[in-house]
Amino acid sequence: MLEPPTHTGVDHVHAHPRHVGHRWIDLILALTAVFISGVSLYVAVEHGRIEQQLVHANAQLVQANSWPFLQIDGQYSRQSTTRISLDNAGIGPAKLETFEVLYQGQPIKDFYTLMERCCGLAATAEGRRLQFPNGLSISNRAKQVIRPGESQLVMEVPASLDQHDVSERFLKASNSITYRACYCSVFDQCWISDLVGLQPAPAATCPTGTSNFNDGTP
């Protein structure tokens, strides 16, 4: 049995791997081994990169399938009731963080203040009952979740029965009433919107200290 060649030195005896006896064949074998190692490393790196892309794409798909989109819907009527609602036309729930109503560009704190400024609503409860015997419907908006396809009431103004014609004034003032909201998805992606346009502005977080519109309840 042939033994591998050895090389002796002062301190050690070294065994060398057997060669085939042809230098060019040995070189090809060495280069082939290096090439295979390189290909294996490239495949491993590429596989990891593709996996990362798939994970990122799946995360984007999940977020896209949870995208909320809030908008104001107004149903105006002179004969019956004018109804303003906040609708989620997206495909994911919306966490409504802030909701503002502005009259002539100025934020309004509550429904009764809005109606007094724009439309001649009486300042007293008795006066309001005379104007609207069936009452007024309003709802506090901020800090709630609106599901996809859900419509939440903002305010209802029925046809008024007194000489001041509050509901008619409300219809005329509607072009001067605007809205602003900040809402987030379940993944805490947030947007600030005028609730009319189709391109809400992305926001890192919703602003704090906002004067949220409410129903006028102390």
Structural commentary:
This protein is an alpha+beta fold. The chain has 2 domains: 44 residues; 134 residues, no CATH class. The protein has 4 helices and 12 strands. The strands form 3 sheets. Strands 5, 6, 8, 10, 11 and 12 form a 6-stranded antiparallel β-sheet that branches. A 4-stranded antiparallel β-sheet has the order 3-4-9-7. A two-stranded antiparallel sheet has the order 1-2. The termini are far apart. The model has no long low-confidence stretch (mean pLDDT 81).
What percent of residues adopt helix (DSSP H or I)? 25-40%
Kindly, what is the distance between the CA atoms of the first and last residues, rounded to a whole number of angstroms?
103 Å
Strand content: 25-35%
Q: What's the average pLDDT?
A: 81
Give unreliable regions as ranges. Answer: none
Radius of gyration over all CA atoms, rounded: 36 Å
Largest sheet: 6 strands, antiparallel
**How many E-type strands?**
12
Task: Summarize the helix and strand pattern as letters.
Answer: EEHEEEEHHEEEHEEE
Give the number of helices: 4
Question: Based on CA inertia axes, which overall geometry fits?
Answer: rod-shaped
Number of domains: 2
Structural class: alpha+beta
In brief:
With 218 residues, this protein is an alpha+beta fold.
Walk me through the topology.
Elements: E1 6-8, E2 13-15, H1 23-64, E3 70-75, E4 81-88, E5 94-103, E6 106-108, H2 111-119, H3 125-131, E7 137-138, E8 144-146, E9 151-158, H4 166-173, E10 177-184, E11 190-193, E12 201-203
Antiparallel strand pairs: 1-2, 3-4, 4-9, 5-6, 5-8, 5-10, 7-9, 10-11, 11-12
